[in-house]
Design a protein that fits this description.
By secondary structure, this protein is of the alpha+beta class. It has a single domain, classed as Hotdog Thioesterase (Thiol Ester Dehydrase, Chain A), CATH 3.10.129.10. 17% of the residues lie in helices and 38% in strands. The chain contains one helix and four strands, in the order ββββα. The chain has a four-stranded antiparallel β-sheet with strand order 1-4-3-2. The longest helix is centred in the last third of the chain and has 22 residues, at 99-120.
Amino acid sequence: MNYIKNPKQPPDVPTPYVIVTVLVDQISFTDFVPKAQADIRLSGIVSSVGRSSIETTVWLEQQQHGQWQKITSAIFLMAARNANISGSAPVNKLVAADDEEKLILAEAEVRKKRRHFEDSGSVLNKVPAP
């Protein structure tokens, strides 16, 4: 795993972390109809990180007439866990290198606030009344 850098870990030892999917935040499809005879491309970015959480955005595209056409995109919330999956594992901070990356981080922060707001009203977080 190249994206979790542990300075105490020897370079030739595999990362002892496990990345798990916590939730699928959003999936969207376009009107583009993919062709069975053409290759597809899967791309993605890490759009935000917390202490042990990772938000990833992925999309699927197919080339048509020399242009890549988006088929679908999705946003996943992942979590880094320690080797025996008994606790969280810290992930490296994400630093925006340019204005485009700053926008990606800002959009991810809006989604994070929305998730927290929606989570606060969830019946799954309340003890049922007797």
